[in-house]
Amino acid sequence: MGRKLIRHPLYVLTMTAFVFFVVTPLIYTLAKTFFVEDSFINNVRLLDKELFFLLAKSIILASVIALFSTITGTGLALLLYKTNIRFRSFFKIALLLPLFIPPYILAVAWKDAFFVFFNDTSLISSYFGVILVLTTVFTPLSMLITGSALSNIDSQLEDACLLISDYRSLIFKIILPLIRPAIITSFVLVFLFSISEFSVPAFLGVNVFTTEIFTQFSAFYNHSLAMLQSTLLILICILLLFSEKRYIADAPFLSMGSKGAGNSCYDMKKGKILGLLFLPGWFSLSVLVPFTTLFVQSFADGTTRFIQAFELLVPAFVTSIGLAFAGAVLIVLTGFSAAYYQSHSRQGKVINFLLLIMFAIPSTVYGISLIQFYNHPVFRFIYSSYAILLIGYTGKFSFIAAKLTGNAIKQIPNSFDEAAQIAGISSSMRKRKILIPLIMQSLFAAFVISFIFSLGELGTSIMLYPPGTEMMPVKVFTIMANAPQSLVSAMTMIVLSITLLIITAFYFMMKPFTKKYRYALHKT
Amino acid sequence: MPYIKLNNIQHSYKEKTVFQDLILGFQANQISCLLGDSGCGKTTLLRLIAGLEIPQAGEIIIGNKTVTQNHSILVPPHRRNTGFIFQDLALWPHFTVYKNIAFGLEARKEKHIKDTVFEALHTFGLQEFAEKYPHQLSGGQKQLVALARSMVLKPEILLMDEPLSGLDVKRKRKIIDLIKNLKQSRFSGNDLTIIYVTHDHREAFAIADNIVVLADGKVQEAGSVEQIKNAKNEYVKYFLEY
Amino acid sequence: MNKIHLIIAIFIALLAGSCETGSNVVVVYTTVDQIFSEPILKEFEKETGIKVKAVYDTEETKSTGVLNRLIAEKDNPQCDLFWSGDPMRSIILKNKGITQPYRSAMAKDIDPAFKDPQYHWTGFSARARVLIYNKNLMKETGIPLSIFDLTKEKYKGKVAIANPLFGTTTFHIAALFSALGDVKAKQLLTDLKNNDVIIATSNGDVKKRVVSGEVSCGLTDTDDAFEAMKENDKTGFVFLDQGGIGSLIMPNTLSLIKNSGHPENAKKLMDYLLRGETEAKLAKSCAQMPLHKGVQVPANIPSLDNIIPMKIDYDKTSKKLDDIQDYLKEWAEN
Q: Do residue A482 and residue C35 have CB atoms under 8 angstroms apart?
């Protein structure tokens, strides 16, 4: 083991840094809460039957959302990646829009839309509303995951089936079983996102486990109970992941391309009206309704609101974008190191487990942990600077980056590395010249996703941002309170446009690189 | 005195034992074929010699140097002066043919890399493909690139893992001839010991000086082509019938 | 390599940019909406040259960020001055030993009822709890004048109130418990519940529902009421129980944080905020009622002289709050 550690010094260094900067604060705070400030037994006594009932309700709710998102996402992916349906390139991009803005903004838009259409918001202020909003938010994620699996299916397998059977059994007997790992990954991830989602149920007034944790924090100031409840939530997530570990490990989580060359497409036959209606139907539901509502609202008071919104956001632009950029770099570095380490060492599993915990933990708990640990004269340089936010982002999103890059690394045959090893090429050179170029697309995808998530991160940022600074999501959120709806909608539209603009810019900046390495995507 | 010696090798993956106390030697400057069904341990044997895997016990000696002993690597893969042709060839898909061949030379900071690479391209008949990428080549061309890539580094041992699977007879023939002539090539330095893994006895008969028949991690028979053809061993007889 | 340099440069810029530490700063955490508090803090900065580093939060999010941050930072406070939108949060911090007393000369003529007896917090500019209503929807039923009217059959399902576990609504309910006694107050809440009162997520949500016509009326704060009237002329508001227990008055409060880094600057900022001029500005921007005498305010801003306030002790009400919170949670969730 000692020899192995020395073989990966950079990774050990990165992982040690992650454990120290990100994980230690959490352990420190949990230990302090449970064992120093009060006894653990006293804490456990606080858990009552109703709490477990609520937990069960939240689990069911998250399962329903995960199920709906996965079914819808898989359906959309089948249409977009396996048929020649019209405008599919447009839909592939357009359907992703709900991923780019914070869920609570969508919840606001939906509630307003319901009021306009039905003159009543009681329908949406319910479990139904939470399911509706979160399903529209997470379906694009499912679509991405299953879509990438679909484009990886070897067309020979499909052809072999078509020779003896029809399209129906092709889908149900061949395609769906083949992408089962991706479907399970999609379900588990959406479940994890949904069960830790706070803003949407809170806004719609639905009581779930996360809002209960929030109530303990904000109404009762009972930190230890809130921490204990969060631990329960983390346990649920870990149990789920462990039970499906095998599938998650194998699933092509958002893998970019590879083997796509052998992919085949099918004609949309007549009589597939259901399929034809499904795509524009879902587009209208998940994109047109909320975004039109936001758009109309933002122009309710003419363009002056846009100018006002812009002026309010300007001081936050540079900070937020710079931070999200730096955050994404750190996240990709951590994610890549974790994924690499995991694929080369047994200890890697522990790292994956730690990444997951940091991902699943509620923002408020994480924020408080970081404050309690870093608010110490020794760490002044971290706590009073933006470094604390970067630590926050890295903890929250490295899991996703590790999944993305990990899957890409798995798709690179070991022999590529071994061939270079025998030729006497050093370990660092092998990484720089062979591994990294070959997984460049996935690294880029991980970077963009980390950037978007960091740019919109609110829960931890609002607890950690250094006094006297401004950040976009915090600003939108704090302005929301007493500002007219038109201003809030205008701010949202501006944030969305900026996000899309930056992603497009990244895309074009990266194009020469991905073009250079596109050969990696073909079968050799 | 064999050039490559494996003494009392024990090796296993998780539950499955691959080798139990294997003893085997390969003569210098010969082409030795490892013949056997899939899963008999042929590839593992090559990887052990190359140093890509560490046996649980036993020692491996190359020349007069012990390279692996008692579950530890004494000489790392790139100092064993071996070349390895992987079953999937492992051509780096994002490098051109030229770069695939030059990469190892660059890492060794050799002089006149360009000349060496072009000479190799010429030797293997690949001049016109220098700027092509692996996916633009046919199966046979890829195999030649893999060979060229290994040979420019002047290995003393060339380990080949079923390099000709999936080729038609004509191309197989051509490459086999090339392999046989490698020993005369200026890329081989003075000595070249080749260990060639295959499950096809005809291929083995066509190129080998010596043949080792492996089954269940044990040597069933070893000897010259003639000796193998006339072997009494039941398994070998059975194997040669198909 | 240029890219690597660029990335390193961004990191250094980010760390250096935020690290500037001068002694002439004051760190303030506030739960008063940024849109109102920021201009005032900026003017202080301009007038005194002391750099104000602020952390904003909003009542809409129940001020979790700021309050939990203050509690978590207790052992090594970063904040110098806490500017709260209501006394309750200051009282929580006082009870947790996070604040320190400061008796500002600027608050001399403010009614002692709006100050902590030990000067851990000092009140200024006040809001009141009011009932806002949608004029169109109130024609038939008439405007309620007492909180007890809201339990009448004719308002069934037409009244909204924010979640009583959070913010000024909690304080309002606790004040009712103080003023009415437990039995009467619980009866009132039960009656409201039986009359299908709608529990909104926040005061802002109450306002939104009234303006849109989803409900006829709702309990909220004066600033929300004025905001609603600015947005649309079909909204009105009324101070309830002017013939009875009176309306709840909630001042802004300021608290010095114990062991903070810049206590002198904090006192300067506190003195500055406690001036009549600040109250005048807050009256103009968000319809708050000055506690100093003789402050110039816009004509439409009500004066505390004309309102019958609910007579409560803020400290005791805050303690009451602790007692009834479990009951409120039960009430709100079931």
A: yes
